[in-house]
Every structure is written in C-alpha cells, then in structure tokens.
Amino acid sequence: MAAYFIVRCKYHDMDNYKKYAKAAAQAVNAFKGRFLVTGKGVQSQKESGQYPKTVIVEFETMEIAIACYECELYQEALSHIEHSADRDFVIVEGLETS
C-alpha cells in the first residue's frame, strides 16, 4: 500500500532551503519516491494557516517512506533547514486500492 510524505512549510532562508531541496530530492529519488505536489499553484483557504507551501511525495510502501525519512541523506538535508523553517510533516499510509 502506498505511503506519502505530506509537508506543509514556510522557509525563512532561501539559500538553506535550496540546499535542503537538492539533498531531499536525492534521498526521495534513491527510494523511488515520486513528487506529486511541490507547492506550485497553491490556493490557500482560510483554514490553511501559516504554511504557504505544500509538498506531497508518494512511496510504494510505508516502510520505504520511513526508511527514506530516516536515511542519512534525508537527515543531512533536514540539517540545512533546522533553524530556518516552520514545518508540519507527516507520513501517512494511503488507501488500499483493488
């Protein structure tokens, strides 16, 4: 069953964000993740709060999604935005399709 990174975020330092984005994309690609949404063309609603950017990444399974998040490359990517971003990050399992 597929699993997804769902990230709502606001970045305060674009140089650090670019470093994060490059390393995070490498980690996602290494685990055969697929970017479904990258925050372009967002229509924010009143309920959406403080996060102007949303990213959704699909993985084949929950185990693969967790392994990607925990891998050294992704953790290194996170170090670039540790003090320069506000984020809400969850990993969710998709519905079984049959």
Topology (SSEs and partners):
Elements: E1 3-11, H1 14-30, E2 34-37, E3 53-59, H2 62-70, H3 72-79, E4 85-93
Antiparallel strand pairs: 1-3, 1-4, 2-3
Main attributes?
98 residues; four-stranded antiparallel sheet; 4 strands; 35% helix; alpha+beta; Alpha-Beta Plaits
Structure overview:
- The structure is a single chain.
- The chain has one domain: Alpha-Beta Plaits.
- 35% of the residues lie in helices and 30% in strands.
- It is globular and about 40 Å long.
- The chain is built from three helices and four strands; from the N terminus they run βαββααβ.
- Strands 2-3-1-4 form a four-stranded antiparallel sheet, covered by helices on one side.
- The protein has helices at residues 14-30, 62-70, 72-79; strands spanning 3-11, 34-37, 53-59, 85-93.
- The protein is of the alpha+beta class and 98 residues long.
- Approximate helicity band: 25-40%
- Principal-axes geometry comes out as globular
* Total individual domains: 1
Strand content: 25-35%
Please tally the β strands and state the result. Answer: 4
Per DSSP, the total helix count is 3
Q: Regarding CATH, which class?
A: Alpha Beta
CATH topology: Alpha-Beta Plaits
Q: Averaging pLDDT over every residue, what do you get?
A: 92
How would you classify the helix and strand content by structural class? alpha+beta
Radius of gyration: 13 Å
Distance between the termini: 10 Å
**Strand order within the widest beta sheet:** 2-3-1-4
Multimeric organization: single chain
Poorly predicted regions are: none
Topology as a string of helices (H) and strands (E): EHEEHHE
| CATH architecture annotation name | 2-Layer Sandwich
Described by strand count, sense and barrel closure, the largest sheet is: 4 strands, antiparallel
